[in-house]
Amino acid sequence: xxxxxNIIETINMIKLYNLDIRTVTLALSLRDCMSxxxxxxxxxxxxxIKNYAKNLVGYADELADEYSIPIINxxxxxxxxxxxxxxxxxxxxxxxxxxxxxxxxxxGVNFVGGYSALVQKGCTKGDNLLIESIPExxxxxxxxxxxxxxxxxxxxxxxxxxxxxxKVIKKSAELTKDKDCIGAAKLVVFCNVPxxxxxxAGAFCGMGEPEAALNVGVSGPGVVRxxxxxxDKTADxxxxxxxxxxxxxxxxxxxxxxxxxxxxxxxxxxxxxxLSLAPTPAVGDSVAGIFQAMxxxxxxxxxxxxxxxxxNDAVKKGGTMASSHVGGLSGAFIPVSEDAGMIEAxxxxxxxxxxxxxxxxxxxxxxxxxxxPGDTHEDVIAGxxxxxxxxxxxxxxxxxxxxxxxxxxxxGDEVSFGGLLGTAPVMPVNNLSSSDFVKRGxxxxxxxxxxxx
Length: 453
Description:
alpha/beta, Anaerobic Ribonucleotide-triphosphate Reductase Large Chain, 2 domains, twelve-stranded mixed beta sheet, two-stranded antiparallel ribbon, 19% strand, globular
């Protein structure tokens, strides 16, 4: 029998605490779209996306109405485009990017991910061409997102790619400076990138994925905060972790229900549920707010990394209890611009880049949506990427860098992207030179624990 309290609890999660299905992402293989003729490639891509995704938005909206739970974003993730363009006699990656953008607009999704390359061990000709095209592609499109994996625990860190991506990030920001450098906000550099992540900007359809699958990302930091605030203030850490696990279980169950219903209507397999506490700029929908509910004065206080470690672990445990197909990133995100509490902490200088880097060792992503001064040298950016990749490589976890050089702005200024991307205070960085180190090139070898086969 359905208990009245359970009904009220679910309603409160949605209405009061911002529980939502953050994204339903159609993962789509484009490997059968390859051709020597670039025009044929683009036609194939456009037609395949239109065919598979034509009902994605409509069916998602229907389910949102039926179950009275918001589905915020509808997205598509495709095979890494470096692979698709490589078959052409005369590759034109910008043309493919524009095709992806046009197809995304046609079917009504807000983002398409997969303008990507996997170069942790080295670059092919296609990889190099795609990477060089990223700034122009992000400037000339509205909905295309890009990611490049430059490191892994098995391969080590491709330092040539790290240096190359620092230049790409800077140029992406410069080409979109009239839009507060949003090009860099749609670009992420990864270590140990997952194949089935439904969240942007890093989503793509991995090589081991099926022809098509529906991956769902659920978010509920406001729900977790409310659950923690409801507890006795003297509850110990074990009780706190158990409460977070129980709450994560409920959130994941909701996401799996919606995901399986939608995949059935689309007649494609259900992929994974990614339970990631991805915040929004809305007040009350903040991971930083969970830290305060736990007993910290604010995000950035000593103890923040420990609190985040417990939160991340408890979310993963609760999610895996609710579903046999938890995937993607799953855990807690700490994007500065997208979290009202993190924005406030950065503005008040409770948080800096060094504290954020420490937190990335225990969270689900990394240095995410952080604005830095526009005159930050490319070699410094390369050093920041290398540090983050090292954390992921050594700890056998996903880490990422999505930083925005705010062109013509300095520390203390602000950039604003609107919507879920939010507003970021420009944070100071250490400008000591990394030049001689990052320009050595080659690969930082994988750690000894990579030899585990």
